[in-house]
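Write out the bound-state structure for zinc ion.
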Amino acid sequence: MHNDEKPRVFQSYPEIEDLPMHENPQPNEINPDSDVIIGLEIHVQLNKLKSKLFCGCSTSYHNSEPNTHTCPVCLGLPGSLPALNKKAVEFGIKVALALECKLLDQTLFYRKNYFYPDLPKGYQISQYDFPLAKDGRVTITTDAGEKVIRINRVHIEEDPAKLMHIGGMGHSKYTLVDYNRSGMPLLEIVTEPDLRSPKEARRFLDKLRSILDYLDVFDGNLEGAMRIDANISLKGGGRTEVKNISSHKGVEKALLYEKTRHKNLRMKNIHIKRETRHYDEQRGITILLRTKEEEEDYRYFPEPDIPLMNVKEWETRLRNEIPELPDAKRQRFIKEYGIKEEHARSLTSDIAIANYFEIISKEIDPSVAASWIADVVKGELNYRDINIKESNLTADKMIRILKKFVLGEITDRNMVELIREIIDSGKDPEEIIKKRGFGKVGEDEVLLLVKKVIEENPDAVKDYRNKNDKALNYLVGKVMALSKGRSDPKEVINLLRKYI
Amino acid sequence: MIDKKTLEHIGKLAKIELDDKDIDEFLPQLQSILDLFDEINSVETETVEPTFHVFGLKNVFREDDVKPSLDREDVLKNVPKKEKDYVKSPKIL
Ligand SMILES: [Zn+2]
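---
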């Protein structure tokens, strides 16, 4: 926006653009890899704030009884007035700057009018023209390399209440409303339609989540912390929107479903209508909610109860509060620790893992630490669907076992077992090593085992002498089994060669 | 000019049922309001800044402090229909 551009009330809502319509391409002209067009709208709950967006009600309602975190403002009682949470605006600006957006000189709130039980005032306080920030970018990694996804805008709005349907949306005859969520601070982040596959959409969301975690503005593990609306069309076709998906995996699945649906309709030469759909997570399908003709007319107008904001002057101060972000951290890890790019990318995608790695690298060779954390620990955590803080594998324990590994006291295979058992049981590594016999068998003991195996397997020894390599593998296997996996296969091979 | 279809649409948005008698009554009233706005619109405002708030206030914020919420009993006191401490409402999809 230029400085001389003044707010106008009646401006069209800057939605994700419709693509230029041209003749419906024939089905065989569709290239599934480049002709899918996806844009996302992400709602992020700024749940690390202490109070709601316009009132002093606490944001910590997630484990509370219904309707215990409300007041006249978030219940929309007559005569109540919104008072804007300064820190919510600061958090919003930090996110916008981290997404490389430009702040507007002047930003303001609007009323978005519609009647729905989740909205006690009959309107949602949101933004419209003159959002907090515009024109940003996020770089993601795709199979074809790095790709820039443009951000259209970032704006602030209040969260509606939560609706419950006992027995599921299809079966219940009425709606139950919990106003605890009403008035929670939300950021809406809108991308340009730059995504070309459901997988890219998921990669984008993972990257965005990582940036938001770095900024420490939200706890993504809380229910409803990130809700996504996904828009999809095939080149030249109509666009559908799938609303309110709560997981990144859900977005990918819903978009895959829609992509196939659009293609099948096109094959049958059926025009795809502009419509809003719901993703049924259990069944993995999308269901029609409403068509464009039934879309609401929101009659936006400026919110008279909240004065204009000129907050661009906060930019320098808030920029200084932004920590090192994933891309910068990745570059530094490669340079400072000399680790592989792939490892650096994996470690920095999660701020907690990145910090964990840096603590461990003070005492362990960074390449060794990087490979064990990125290749093994992260996998074990993902498998159990927990994060490093929730696991029992503290940095201190990891340092202790890596020291033993570096000294050759534990084999690769037993390290993996050990890591698993620490995560699952929380026991001390030393205790597990002793109990499970993970300590490497001493050289003398290995030699005894090798001699024993040679003695007990004369046929295999003969075969090996006749240049049969399979026989050697067989003998190595025997020694490994006797030592319960606690010996180094290379060492065993050398000893076998020496004594046969 | 406002027509019957627009008026019906406005009625639907406001969740007000309008019969033909209502429409005959409201059409000329709304038309005269729109005429008045047309008159206001005819004023040359090229060089005038828009007014969003008459007091010219800017940057009014509060700190991120928690204040006590209402007791649920009080919250639900005036609710016409409730169930298990929730507010009960008709289902709208
Ligand atoms: Zn409140």
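---
Chain A touches chain B through 56 residues (CB under 8 Å).
Chain A has three domains: 37-318, 324-436, 443-499.
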